[in-house]
Specification:
The protein is an alpha+beta fold. The chain has 6 helices and 8 strands, in the order βββββαααβββααα. Helix content is about 35%, strand content about 25%. Helix 1 (about 85-100) runs antiparallel to helix 6 (about 225-235) and helix 4 crosses helix 5 (about 200-220). The longest helix has 18 residues, at about 200-220.
């Protein structure tokens, strides 16, 4: 099957032989795909193309089983300018996409959210907030469900001034959980995460803890991006 000029981002790139790359690509129309870029390091055809992360491309390839073959690639938008923190945040987003998305299954709304998230991150918006919104949309896109609007026991809307207990695979309720079943969380955090209005450190940290707990159920191995971030923080301090 021939795929012509579809919007894509490269999530990961690794060397393959002395002249080629294997690209793990997130495409708007075809989801996550693997593509070999034969001769990409030396071919004049790809002169000016660095196969960078966080760069939007239009990519053409021939699909063969689990590995497509690149036939053409054009730059759509300019590469973002990084700080180390922004690059690590981008690496984290790419890593959880690679861990969670099924191959060859389109997620067009998530693709748009990914692009928007990159724009926000590299426009110097608060990455601690922007990452939470992306994690929420990612989980919802995959059908894992992040229930934020109602008390699952009573059906009533979340009241910001109340405290709740959040259980994975169920959601928030006023019913106290057994130890290890979930976490206590404020109604204000649930309300603001749902409406994407997080602003205060306490609620941002609670949202991070909640989403990390849910993601941890589906990603059962350490993330390289978190290890690198800790190493960077130690060097910085």
């Amino acid at each position: 099957m021939k795929i012509s000029y579809t919007p894509c981002f490269i999530l990961h790139r690794r060397n393959f032989s002395e002249t080629s790359f294997i690209l793990e690509v997130f495409s708007k129309e075809y989801g996550r795909v693997n593509i070999i870029a034969k001769g990409a390091k030396k071919s004049k055809k790809y002169q000016g193309i660095n196969f960078d992360l966080y760069q939007k491309y239009n990519i053409s390839w021939i699909s063969r089983n689990d590995l497509g073959t690149l036939t053409d690639i054009d730059i759509v938008s300019s590469k973002y300018t990084f700080t180390a923190e922004k690059a690590l945040s981008g690496f984290y987003i790419n890593e959880i996409i690679l861990k969670l998305l099924y191959k060859d299954e389109p997620y067009p709304e998530l693709f748009d959210m990914y692009e928007l998230t990159l724009n926000r991150l590299f426009s110097n918006e608060n990455e601690k907030i922007i990452l939470r919104y992306f994690e929420k949309i990612l989980l919802q896109s995959l059908g894992y469900g992040v229930s934020l609007e109602n008390d699952v026991k009573t059906g009533l809307s979340i009241i910001p001034k109340n405290e709740y207990y959040y259980k994975i695979d169920s959601g928030p309720s006023s019913e106290i959980l057994s130890k290890g079943e979930g976490m206590k969380i404020s109604g204000k955090t649930l309300f603001e995460l749902n409406n994407e209005t997080l602003s205060h450190a306490k609620n941002i940290n609670e949202a991070k803890k909640l989403l990390s707990m849910i993601l941890g159920k589906y990603i059962n191995q350490p993330l390289e991006s978190r290890r690198l971030y800790k190493s960077y923080a130690n060097i910085k301090n």
